[in-house]
Write a structure and sequence with these properties.
The structure holds 2 protein chains of 2 kinds. By secondary structure, chain A is mainly α. Chain A has a domain of 209 residues. In chain A, strands 1-2 form a two-stranded antiparallel ribbon. In chain A, β1 and β2 form a beta hairpin. In chain A, α3 runs parallel beside α14, α3 runs antiparallel to α19 and α6 runs antiparallel to α8. Chain A is globular, with a radius of gyration of 22 Å. The model of chain A has no long low-confidence stretch (mean pLDDT 91). Chain B is 72% helix and 3% strand. In chain B, β1 and β2 form a beta hairpin. In chain B, α3 packs antiparallel against α10 and α8 packs antiparallel against α11. The radius of gyration of chain B is 30 Å and the shape is globular. Classes of the chains: A mainly alpha, B mainly alpha. Chains A and B meet through α6, α12, α14, α16 and α17 of A and β1, α5, α6, α24 and α25 of B.
């Protein structure tokens, strides 16, 4: 019998939470150990998805479909394709690593922290597997709360509440518009087809009139653009990243931001393809602004975490640019770049966390010459830095190259502007690296720094393996997304043929 | 053996991994042996493949070996694959050969450095990247090597990372190179969307269908050339190379003289099939090359740091190579690349030997009279200097003379005039360095006791000296059939036009003239630095402004700082504090503040009467539902 793998993945963490309730809150080792065990099992259960995934088909796989609230057309409908597989693997892969990183970092309210972590995992995986709009929205909201708590409770005392509320309100604002759009879609689908349903795949084939697509695209798009975040909706990110505990920043960067880009790919573009074509210039230009603006602002940051946060704005700009090319290299590059950003920026936040644990400061000026007391750390930091600036042979290059290649086809000016981001990335990352790691150790507190412990090395090694793997042999990962992307590209191509006439219709109506 | 061409870069990669991961636990001798041995194996394999290639029948050439598909997406395919053809063979031989010598030399030079294993792992990584660059059969894999050598250059320039100037120089090299790489990237996109491939042979074959002067090809070649100016330190992106002298001297010899910086020349020659279709690009290459040759040479006149003299000389000689390519003499460019690799590597290693013997002193004003103390270093340095000055029968004579010749017959009188002037200056400042370093009275600090270097260092010097003397004979001019180099390389190069026959008298006259120019340069240096040592100061006193500009390298670094670096920093600061904090986030916080203000007032609507609320809700629901229904309908 086929195991309901996706349901196991979503509900195992929730079951873990129930067990956690009954564990002794004072015994931190047990709490962390148990959470670790859940995360490891979770990861093991995700492996069959990878190995049994059929690369040849664009159809949904591992599908589970149960009636939930049939009177409203709501069902428990999950499944994955090439767009979600990699993100799910990234999420389950990071789970154990994140728990490992809390070992010394988190010392108060450990039980609640672990509950949040598991809840977050369930929510994130739920978002990636949901194929029912209602179910998706439930997970989307579920995910919001543990993250809000992680920032607000375990964050930096000074500004954590401000950052948490900012994060919450921003996301809520987008979500509510999306909820309205989902409801409109529901009623529209019911009216046109006669069956009221939240089934996402049924929405794909609806052929919604352009004027409606236009507004729906914006409503969904705003929710996702905030999440990405795209300029100018990014200002919650530096605050959230800076104030969140290390693991919070890692998950936020590695997975949560991908909800936005994934949302465009899964919902916006296939459901509203003509509008998507219509909005290519707008979103591409916002992506470009994000790339250049994020890099420039990143360059002058004084706080390591803020620097990494702004660099995320830049990197996610690349992803968005790639997705909006609607061609093979662009979209495949965008997907692989989501994973790359998760690995590299996740690793960067772990790196900042490691020196923060030692020095309790994130200010670049407080460091300098750290390479001498911490040679292993220096090596790892260097590799991650190079990955982040897209050095060929490491992961970042594969994504950036494919994205730029794809973008060139859309409009060569886009690619040329985006490529300047590659130069700026070298500036801000290497300058930061120089100020933190090179030079003489001037601050006596830095002279006695301990190099990475075995536990910390264990956090980085798996990340480094994939940083090199994707760089040297990306075929392993590109193959998984190939069929789904090809199908998507063909669908968008078809939509383009009809988009001209539809937009003319729209203009006619508008007059 | 040719099937194992992929092993050529793999040996040093393995060396890098072993030394990088385990080097700390190994003895210095082991680390040195692994590092040198790995590169030595690459060299031996290259020689074996070279000999095998010579035996191949013409129809079996060139050979391409695919290892695996690296990136594939839709129609885009880029494999890890190698091309064995005359051009790549020459490059592989030069790179692996010179690298081996410099690795052996480094074992002696770096012996007391605590970062010994780190040094050797970086150096092996560099050789891996460089061999990938010249062995690749497509633009993307070439780009991997291209950025890879840039990374190693960054790591090795900043090898002594505790020194602020060293880490600054490393970063500058990387960033300036990235500006060039930006051009390379754009060129690649344009190539792919024009030809549907990044494979050299496919692209060059298809390029034949384009007319001369085609705009797309012109754009492609200009973009690629931007990459070349970054990597090969040409105007306007040359500024990183002199600073790169912060690295250990063998690194300067290997990376910043013999191999990496010549990658741009290699790339232009590799793409000769494209460049010959783009007259505008060729002219650009020639002008930039000639301009750089003379510009850098003049700066070299006024430097006192022995390595800086050699650095500017490198920039200048690279200019010659580009000038050659620019007038269509690609083979001469590659020829000069090869001879330059021998004599410039030797000059740098000699300077390293001097610095080693002088306990780290680099200022020629504090040297002098080292001739007796360091006989091998001195003799080899003289040979290399004669080679770079272009004196018969040393290697540089043949290659430089060819460039001067073609710059006149296929180029323009102006090119030739500039190149000849640069040749004069080169002969002058190179002999200036000879006289200041090895001749005259000893000016060194009392605590310095100069000594000759150990055999581990002098043996590579001697081998390179031999190459600097005889290396030019593979390109013997005038007599038909003796130019082995040209005949061998010809299949890899698309000529600008059919070969012409020139009169022997004319060629010989040109040679004698250029030798005469070099001789005058040498004599002037002799006069100024040996016979009348007070002369230089008088000249300086006579032209204080000119000297100030030359001595301060025309203030180009300051100009770039003021016009590019600072504005970007200021602009970024403005974007952060002005735009991001005030405008974008200001709008966010402002709307939050507005809501707070609004709710403070709207609070008054909360009357507490249930019926008021019920009415409001009813109205609201009616409006919304009515709208939705109307909308859907």
């Amino acid at each position: 019998m086929q195991l309901p793998l996706l349901s196991i993945l979503v509900f195992l963490p929730l079951a873990g939470i129930i067990v956690l309730f009954f564990l002794d809150r004072k015994n931190h080792k047990t709490l962390k150990g148990f959470t670790m065990a859940v995360m490891v099992v979770e990861f093991l259960f995700s492996l069959p998805l990878w190995f049994r995934f059929d690369n040849a088909t664009a159809a949904m796989q591992f599908v589970e479909h149960y009636r939930w609230l049939p009177q409203y057309g709501i069902s428990y409908y999950v499944g994955i394709d090439g767009f979600s597989l990699l993100l799910i693997m990234l999420t389950t892969f990071l789970g154990p690593i994140c728990v490992l990183a809390t070992w010394e970092d988190v010392q108060h309210r450990v039980k609640e922290f672990m509950i949040c972590l598991l809840g977050l995992t369930a929510g994130m995986l739920g978002v990636f597997v949901a194929l029912d709009l209602f179910l998706f929205y439930v997970f989307w909201e579920v995910m919001l709360i543990p993250m809000y708590l992680l920032i607000g409770v375990w964050g930096n005392p000074a500004r954590r509440v401000y950052a948490a509320i900012k994060f919450f309100l921003f996301t809520m604002f987008g979500s509510l518009l999306m909820l309205v759009a989902i409801l409109v879609l529901y009623f529209y689908a019911g009216k046109v087809t006669g069956t009221y349903t939240f089934d996402l795949l049924k929405m794909y084939g609806l052929n919604i009139p352009f004027h409606m697509q236009f507004w729906m695209f914006l409503a969904f798009g705003l929710a996702f653009a905030i999440k990405v975040p795209m300029f100018p909706f990014h200002t919650w990110l530096p605050d959230a990243h800076t104030e969140a505990p290390t693991v919070g920043s890692v998950i936020l960067a590695a997975v949560l931001l991908k909800m936005g880009t994934y949302g465009f790919l899964r919902f916006n573009m296939p459901m509203f393809p003509q509008a998507a074509h219509y909005f290519v210039p707008l979103f591409s230009i916002l992506a470009l602004i994000g790339i250049v603006y994020g890099a420039l602002v990143s360059m002058v940051q004084k706080d390591l975490k803020r620097l990494v946060a702004f660099s995320s704005v830049s990197h996610l700009g690349f992803v968005m640019l790639g997705l909006f090319t609607f061609n093979m290299p662009g979209v495949q590059g965008g997907i692989i770049q989501m994973i790359n950003h998760g690995l590299s920026t996740g690793a960067l936040f772990f790196i900042v966390g490691a020196i923060y644990e030692r020095r309790h400061t994130r200010m670049i000026a407080d460091f300098g010459g750290i390479s001498t007391p911490m040679p292993i750390f220096a090596t790892i930091f260097m590799i991650v830095t190079l990955s982040s600036i897209g050095l060929p042979g490491l992961n970042g290059f594969v994504g950036e190259f494919l994205i730029l290649l794809g973008a060139w086809k859309t409009n060569w000016v886009y690619a040329a502007i985006a490529a300047t981001g590659v130069i700026f990335a070298a500036c801000y990352m290497l300058w930061m690296f120089q100020r933190v790691m090179f030079g003489e150790v001037t601050n006596p507190k830095n002279q006695v720094l301990q190099d990475l412990s075995q536990r910390e090395i264990a956090i980085f090694v798996p990340l480094l393996i994939f940083i090199v793997w994707i760089g040297v042999y990306p075929g392993t990962f590109l193959d998984k997304t190939k069929a789904t992307t090809a199908n998507f590209v063909a669908m968008m191509e078809k939509a383009k043929d009809t988009s001209v006439s539809l937009s003319q219709v729209f203009k006619g109506e508008a007059r | 053996m040719i099937d194992y061409v992929w092993l050529i870069p793999v040996f040093p990669l393995v060396g890098f991994l072993i030394n990088g991961l385990l080097g700390q636990k190994l003895s210095k001798n082991t680390v040195g042996a692994i590092g040198s041995g790995a590169v030595g194996l690459s060299f031996l394999l290259t020689v074996g493949i070279f000999l095998e290639y010579l035996k191949l029948p013409p129809q079996a050439r060139p050979v391409e070996k695919v290892v695996y598909t690296w990136i594939a997406s839709g129609a885009f395919q880029a494999p890890v694959a190698f091309l064995v053809d005359p051009l790549s063979l020459i490059m592989l031989l030069v790179v692996s050969g010179v690298s081996t010598l410099i690795h052996i030399y480094s074992v002696g030079y770096m012996h007391d450095d605590p970062g010994f294993y780190r040094y050797f792992s970086y150096l092996n990584l560099f050789v891996f990247a460089m061999l990938t660059l010249v062995g690749a059969n497509n633009f993307l894999l070439m780009f991997v090597g291209w950025e890879g050598v840039g990374l190693c250059s960054y790591l090795l320039i900043g090898f002594w990372y505790e020194k602020q100037s060293a880490s600054d120089a490393g970063k500058k090299a990387f960033v300036v190179n990235r500006i060039g790489d930006f051009g390379f990237l754009l060129g690649m996109f344009l190539i792919f969307w024009t030809f549907g491939s990044l494979n050299f042979r496919e692209v060059f074959a298809l390029a034949g269908n384009f007319p001369v002067g085609d705009l797309t090809i012109t754009a492609i070649t200009l973009c690629l050339f931007l990459g070349a100016t970054g990597k090969s330190a040409q105007l306007p992106l040359y500024t990183w190379l002199p600073d790169a002298m912060e690295g250990p001297t063998p690194v300067s010899a290997l990376i910043h003289a013999a191999t990496m910086v010549t990658a741009g020349v290699y790339m232009v020659a590799r793409c000769s099939a494209l460049y010959v279709l783009a007259p505008i690009s060729l002219t650009t290459v020639a002008i930039v090359g000639a301009g750089t040759a003379i510009f850098a040479a003049t700066i070299g006149l006024a430097q006192f740091d022995i390595k800086r003299v050699l650095a500017y000389s490198t920039v200048s000689q690279l200019g010659y190579m580009f000038l050659a390519c620019g007038v269509g003499a690609f083979i001469s460019g590659i020829f000069h690349l090869m001879t330059h690799a021998f004599f410039k590597a030797l000059l740098f290693l000699d300077s390293g030997s001097v610095i080693h013997g002088m306990h780290g002193e680099q200022d020629m004003r504090k040297m002098g009279g080292l001739k007796k103390k360091m006989p091998i270093t001195y003799k080899t340095y003289i040979l290399a200097t004669l080679a770079i000055a272009g004196i018969f029968p040393f290697a540089g004579f043949f290659s430089k003379d060819e460039i001067l010749f073609f710059s006149l017959v296929d180029g323009h009188l102006v090119y030739w005039g500039i190149a000849t002037a640069a040749a004069f200056i080169t002969a002058f400042y190179m002999f200036r360095s000879v006289f200041m370093t090895f001749h005259g009275e000893a000016r060194w600090d009392p605590h310095v006791h100069p000594h000759e270097s150990p055999p581990l260092m002098t043996v590579p010097l001697i081998i390179l000296a031999v190459l600097s003397v005889v290396g030019g004979f593979v390109g013997f001019p005038i007599i038909e059939g003796l130019h082995v180099f040209r005949d061998f390389l010809a299949p890899s190069i698309t000529p600008l036009k059919a070969a012409e026959h020139h009169s022997v008298t004319f060629e010989v006259a040109m040679m004698i003239f250029s030798m005469g120019v070099a001789g005058v340069g040498i004599y002037t240096a002799y006069k100024m630095y040996m016979v009348k040592p007070e002369l230089p100061d008088k000249v300086v006193a006579k032209f204080p402004t000119v000297y100030d500009y030359v001595y301060n390298k025309y203030y180009v670094d300051e100009l770039y700082d003021a016009t590019v670096v600072e504005p970007i920093k200021d602009g970024s600061n403005f974007l952060w504090t002005g735009v991001d904090d005030q405008v974008v986030d200001g709008a966010v916080n402002g709307s939050a503040g507005f809501v707070a203000w609004l709710s403070a007032h709207l609070r008054k609507l909360e009357t507490g009467f249930l019926s008021n609320y019920a009415l409001a809700i009813l109205l609201g629901v009616t409006v919304i539902v009515g709208y939705l229904l109307g909308y859907v309908g």
